[in-house]
From TrEMBL:
The keyword Transferase does not apply. It comes from Sporolactobacillus nakayamae. Its cofactor is Mg(2+). It comes from the Bacteria. Keywords: Antiviral defense, Endonuclease, Hydrolase, Magnesium, Metal-binding, Nuclease. This is CRISPR-associated endonuclease Cas2. One of its GO terms (biological process) is defense response to virus.
Amino acid sequence: MLQFSVYSRICNGEDGVQKHMKRLKENLPPVSGAIRSMKITEKQFENMDILLGEDTPEERLGSNKTDFF
């Protein structure tokens, strides 16, 4: 298992990404473990496929994608 919890944050541009990454780094918990960050573009996020389950109402509102299987 690579993940236990996944959180997302929408940022407007690289400056926003850097601001929030700095904030995260300054507030890391004082325990051992692993925290990872991955930056993806909106286009990459839109190309995500649903393998199991249904798309959420938020996904239906914000997506032009019509080929959900």
